[in-house]
Design the sequence.
C-alpha cells in the first residue's frame, strides 16, 4: 500500500465542463483589457502587461486590478504520456491515472505529489491517451514560497512547455506543422516539440546558460568575467572574432548539439515524425548569433531565431520570450479557463455577486424588498386618504354631501385594503413556503452527500480487493459492512486502501475483529464506516 502522506490533485480537459462559461461577443476584447503581472520566479524578474504594452517592474507587490501568473520550468516536473482503456468510466479516470503514474513512472509512495493532466487526441487503438504533469509538493512549495509573502493570490501557475501553445492560439505560427523550440535560460535548457499546434514532447538537458559559462571556464582552465562572457556569447556566438573564445565556443556548441541531436532522433523515432518543419532557437538574454546556421549544418533542420511578433510593444530592446507567452496564455486562460493547466493553490476568489454566499444574500435582499413593496404602498395610500378626510371635515357644513360621498369612497378603499391585505397575507405564506423549500433544496444540493454513489464506489473497491459483502446495515451516516474473504490480508489491504482513498469523505473507518469461519474456511469481519 502506498504511503498515507501522499496527496494527489488532478485535473484534466474532461473536467472542462465545470469551468465557468462566459458570454459570447466581446469575450476576447474583455480578456485583452486585463492587466497581467508575469513572474519569472527563477531569475526574480517581473513584467507588467497593460493595454498591449509590457514593461519590467523592480519589485513584486499585490495589485487588486492585475492578474498574476508564473511558470514551472521543465526541469522541475515529470512529464509523461499514459494510456487508459476507453472502457474506464469518467468518474474513475483520476484514480486510474494516479495508479498508472505510480506504476509506470516509478513515483515514490512516501512523497506527496500534485498531478495535472490533459487528454491528447488519439484515434489509434482501444486506449485513451493522457499527458501527465507531475511535481513534488516540496518542490512546488519551494518555488512559490516567496510569492505568498509579496502577493496575495497567484491566478495562474502553468508548465513552461505549455506556454508555446499560445503561439498557435494567437495565429503567430502555422498550426499544421511540426516545430521544435530550443530555449536557453540561466536555470534550464529545454527543447520542446509541437505537432499540429499541440504539445508533443519536451526535454531538459544540462546546458543552461549558467552551466555553459561554467563549462567554458573548465575548458580554458580559469574563471573569466561572466558578464563579458555572456555578452560575447549572445552577440557573436560561434562567429566570434575573439580568438581566445572562438575555439572553445566551437567545442561548447559541439557538446550542446550532440545532446540536442540525440533528443531530436529519439523524438522522431518515438513519436513517428518524418520531418521537423522548423526549429526556433532563443534564450532569455536574446538571440544567439550564428547558432541557427550551426544548427542547420549539424542537425539538418531549418532554424531561425526565436523572436516573434506578439503585437506587444516594449521599451526594452529584448524581453524574455517566456514573459510574452505567459502574458498571452494568462489572457487566454481568463477568457477560457479550460485551455491551461493551472497548478496554483492560491487562486483569486470570485467577485461577491458570483460567490454562493453573495448570491444568497442578494436573493434575500431582493425578496425582502419585494415583500415590503405592497404593505408600504398601501400604508402610504391609507395616510393620503386620512388627510383627505381631515380636509373634508373642515368643510363639513358647506360640503356635507361631498363628505358623505368621500366617506363611501373611503369605505370602499378600506374594503380594498382589507382584501388586498388578505391577498398579501396569502402571498406572504406562499413566499415563506417557497423560501423554505429553496433553502432546503440549497442545503441538500450543497451538503447532502450522495450516499448511494459512495456505496457504489465502495462496492467497486470491495471487488477490487477480492472482498465480498453479504450484508449491509445502515443507521443515519453509519454503515456496517459484513465482509467475507478468502484471506485476512485482503480485508486489511482493503481497509488501508479505503482509508487513504476516502480520507476526506469519512469521519471514521475501522473493524473490530477479523476471524476465520471454521465451517467454510473463510475470513469474516464487520467493517464500520461513519460518513462526515
Sequence:
Amino acid at each position: 500500500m502506498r504511503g498515507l502522506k501522499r496527496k494527489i490533485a488532478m485535473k484534466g480537459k474532461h473536467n472542462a465542463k465545470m469551468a465557468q462559461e462566459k458570454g459570447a461577443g466581446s469575450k476576447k476584447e474583455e480578456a485583452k483589457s486585463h492587466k497581467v503581472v508575469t513572474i519569472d520566479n527563477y531569475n526574480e524578474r517581473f513584467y507588467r502587461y497593460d493595454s498591449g504594452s509590457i514593461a519590467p517592474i523592480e519589485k513584486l507587490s499585490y495589485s487588486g486590478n492585475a492578474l498574476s501568473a508564473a511558470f514551472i520550468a521543465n526541469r522541475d516536473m515529470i512529464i509523461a504520456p499514459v494510456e487508459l482503456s476507453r472502457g474506464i468510466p469518467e468518474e474513475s479516470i483520476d484514480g486510474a491515472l494516479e495508479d498508472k503514474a505510480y506504476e509506470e513512472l516509478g513515483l515514490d509512495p512516501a512523497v506527496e505529489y500534485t498531478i495535472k493532466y490533459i487528454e491528447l487526441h488519439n484515434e489509434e487503438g482501444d486506449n485513451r491517451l493522457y499527458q501527465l504533469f507531475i511535481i513534488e509538493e516540496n518542490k512546488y512549495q519551494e518555488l512559490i514560497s516567496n510569492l505568498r509573502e509579496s502577493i496575495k493570490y497567484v491566478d495562474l501557475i502553468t508548465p513552461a512547455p505549455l506556454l508555446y501553445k499560445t503561439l498557435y492560439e494567437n495565429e503567430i505560427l502555422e498550426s499544421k506543422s511540426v516545430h521544435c523550440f530550443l530555449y536557453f535560460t540561466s536555470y534550464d535548457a529545454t527543447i520542446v516539440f509541437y505537432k499540429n499546434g499541440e504539445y508533443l514532447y519536451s526535454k531538459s538537458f544540462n546546458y543552461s546558460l549558467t552551466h555553459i559559462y561554467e563549462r567554458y571556464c573548465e575548458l580554458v582552465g580559469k574563471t573569466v568575467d561572466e558578464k563579458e562572457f555572456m555578452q560575447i556569447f549572445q552577440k557573436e556566438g560561434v562567429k566570434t572574432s575573439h580568438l581566445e573564445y572562438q575555439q572553445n565556443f566551437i567545442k561548447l556548441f559541439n557538446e550542446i548539439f550532440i545532446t540536442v541531436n540525440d533528443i531530436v532522433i529519439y523524438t522522431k523515432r518515438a513519436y513517428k515524425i518524418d520531418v521537423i518543419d522548423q526549429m526556433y532557437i532563443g534564450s532569455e538574454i536574446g538571440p544567439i548569433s550564428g547558432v541557427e546556421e550551426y544548427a542547420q549544418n549539424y542537425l539538418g533542420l531549418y532554424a531561425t531565431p526565436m523572436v516573434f511578433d506578439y503585437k506587444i510593444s516594449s521599451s526594452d530592446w529584448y524581453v524574455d520570450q517566456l514573459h510574452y507567452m505567459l502574458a498571452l496564455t494568462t489572457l487566454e486562460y481568463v477568457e477560457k479557463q479550460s485551455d491551461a493547466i493551472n497548478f496554483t493553490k492560491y487562486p483569486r476568489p470570485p467577485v461577491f455577486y458570483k460567490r454562493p454566499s453573495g448570491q444568497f444574500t442578494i436573493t434575500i435582499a431582493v425578496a425582502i424588498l419585494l415583500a415590503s413593496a405592497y404593505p408600504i404602498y398601501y400604508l402610504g395610500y391609507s395616510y393620503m386618504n386620512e388627510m383627505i378626510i381631515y380636509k373634508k371635515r373642515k368643510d363639513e357644513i358647506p360640503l356635507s354631501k361631498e363628505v358623505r360621498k368621500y366617506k363611501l369612497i373611503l369605505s370602499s378603499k378600506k374594503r380594498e385594503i382589507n382584501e388586498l391585505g388578505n391577498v398579501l397575507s396569502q402571498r406572504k405564506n406562499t413566499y415563506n413556503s417557497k423560501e423554505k423549500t429553496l433553502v432546503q433544496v440549497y442545503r441538500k444540493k450543497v451538503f447532502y452527500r450522495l450516499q448511494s454513489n459512495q456505496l457504489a464506489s465502495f462496492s467497486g473497491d470491495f471487488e477490487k480487493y477480492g472482498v465480498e459483502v453479504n450484508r449491509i446495515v445502515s443507521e443515519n451516516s453509519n454503515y456496517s459492512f459484513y465482509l467475507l474473504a478468502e484471506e485476512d490480508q485482503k480485508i486489511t489491504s482493503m481497509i488501508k486502501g479505503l482509508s487513504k482513498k476516502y480520507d476526506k469523505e469519512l469521519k471514521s473507518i475501522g473493524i473490530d475483529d477479523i476471524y476465520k469461519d471454521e465451517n467454510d474456511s473463510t475470513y469474516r469481519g464487520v467493517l464500520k464506516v461513519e460518513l462526515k
About this structure: Confidence is low (pLDDT under 50) at residues 1-9, 11-31, 351-355. The first helix runs from residue 27 to 32. The two ends are 24 Å apart (CA to CA).
